Amino acid sequence: MKITRLSPQRRNPERVSVFVDGRFSFGLHQDTVTRLGLREGMELTSGELDDLLHQDELRRAKEYALLLLSYRARTEHELHKRLTTKGFRPGIAVEAVDRLKQLKLIDDARFARDFIADRVRIGHKGKRIAHLELIKLGVSREDARQALDDAPSELEAAREVVSKYRSRYARLEPAVRRRRLYAALSRRGFPYDVIKQALNLPEDDA
Question: Of 120, 140, 144, 186, which is the most exposed, with the fewest CB atoms less than 10 Å away?
Answer without folding.
Answer: 186
